[in-house]
Design goal:
Helix 1 packs across helix 5 and helix 3 runs antiparallel to helix 4. The chain contains five helices and no strands. Helices cover about 75% and strands about 0% of the residues. It is elongated and about 70 Å long. The chain is mainly alpha-helical.
Amino acid sequence: MEEKDKTFENWWMANKQRVLSEDREYSDAVGTYKMTSGADWLLFGIPVVTGILCIEYVPIESEVLRWVVSFLAAVLVSVACVYVKSLSNPHRPIGDIEADVKKRCLDEYRRTGVLGKSNKATTNR
């Protein structure tokens, strides 16, 4: 059984991207991370504007320290924007979907003994 699992793991590493790209749920979830709307571009622009405003209005005498504070503020706002974007994602986490696809492929391989020949393992339920 261990040899079969090792064979599957080698096949999975070689074919992971192809198999995942054929799964509809995975493709839909990945597509939600693309910047497709004005709100997405706004979430990208907010950290930039925050950094610029911090450089101008933070009351710190040292120029270098002001740049560091502005950079940290922009990074924190960027993380907050990515979090907001993830809350609007209606799909399960990509890691969970990937694990399910891998499990379906492994179950199919254990049942049939054939690697990647059946589309049943890669289609969405």
